[in-house]
Write the structure tokens for this entry.
Amino acid sequence: MNYMPVDGKPDRMHVGARKLDLADWIEISDDYESDLAKKRELLKNSHDRVFVSLPVGDQGSKEVLELLRSHLPTAFPSRWPNGVVVDESLHPLEAASLLVQEDLALMTQIGTDWVLTAACLCFPSRWDVRDKIGKNLSGIHGPVPHYEETIAAATQNIHDKLTVERPIWRVNWTVMDSGELHQPVAVRDPNAMTVTRDNIDQTLYFRRERQTLRKLPNSGDILFTIRTYSDVFSDVVARYPEFRKNLGTTLLGVTPQMADYKGWAKILNEIEAWSQG
Ligand code: HEM
């Protein structure tokens, strides 16, 4: 298990961008085959719900596929000993997405805006990619409480200033009552969560998104990758015993609007009690 963004400090929205070593651009785990099987199934049975594209993103999408074709056999020679083979009939971003566990989103600069122009999003954290295509950063983040007044300007600035030589990565996290990676439904009934302090260990999941942003040299587009990890609380505590106490103190910083957005309104008290137990 990797990535522990909960450190016990009260929660506050922040960008937290770090320099990415391109050798670590893509992560491959033991779940590779099963995650890719899920992607193939979603793309076969629910294609239009997980894949979107606009013609203006075609050039960048081709570039993403070419970058992966050269990166993967170098970074993972035992998995790709004879190079990368893809289905050439697919949209290049879809073909690219079927090589990696990451979700892929392409941002194109139109005027001063960075706009989502293509995406293959099989493992969203309760949002629907069809609502986001063609939108700029503020439009995409519309439902996120406090986004505009806290990190909107910094997020725009990161996109404006990103260079080919200096890609970045960051981590987002949340708590859900399901370990299923494919979570497309935006609004969830908070009463549906039947969590008590006694069953939390087995009922709640700690979900992390490792995100990377990389500027593409030819198109000038930005590729945003999202790699989602989810582990049941009992496994998280076994690996990081301090998580139990830290989650409680971190959640003390959550605003009511954020608790609502995350679907936590009815479970915060139970988590606090568990955390102090
Ligand atoms: C530096 C870059 C970025 C930062 C700092 C950032 C930050 C955030 C934060 C803090 C949230 C709230 C998540 C939560 O706490 O659960 C969020 C949500 C989200 N972000 Fe970003 N983001 C960035 C780039 C992007 C890009 C390029 C996309 C393009 C697809 C994107 C798509 C989304 C979506 C779809 C959501 C969920 C919105 C919803 O609930 O409808 N983000 N982002």
Summary: The longest helix spans residues 58-75. The mean pLDDT is 95. Residues 197 and 271 are 6 Å apart (CA to CA).
